[in-house]
Sequence to fold (192 residues):
Amino acid sequence: SEKLRVLFFKPTEFFKKIKAETDLKVSVKWAFASLVAYSILSVLTWLILGSLSITLPEWMGTVTGDYLTVAFALITVLLSFIFLLPMSRYFHWIALKLGGKGTQDDTTKILFYSEVVSFSGGWIPIITWFFSLWGIYTMYRGYRVLHSLSRGRAIGAILLPVLLILLVILAILITIILGILAMVIGFQAATG
Fold:
């Protein structure tokens, strides 16, 4: 459709056109439809590649056609869609802290439409990274238009939430590792 073409090739124009949209149903439908298409095409691609016994370069891993891998990929995608709404609140909070002027619905639209871009070609082996990067670029353009953020602040609205989540995960991992080390050292001291 024309709207999808504009989303892909002219994201700034796309977000300017949808700025007045107050109903999230359209963006949710688009994201869900692209998720379903992504899931089906991913499964078919992995099953076909697995049946061909294609071995990719070592840095890319091996395509095995393993159903567990396909199930894990689908569950991951479904969970990402489910968590997109709560995560949009977190992304919105960061955008506001950076001076964003958009609404919660604007942030949700940015995240859903960037997922549409990522899911649209994310099932294609070897060039998946391109669609992921283009989805991030679409998110950047959305922040610039719907939140009226400068270039640097729009980049910050994308990177800060991710960095904060990574820091929390790192803190949890360090805590677990230190706990295990304390147990090992304590066990060695008690038996040694």
The two ends are 72 Å apart (CA to CA). The chain has seven helices and no strands. Helices lie at 2-9, 11-18, 25-51, 67-97, 104-121, 128-146, 151-191.
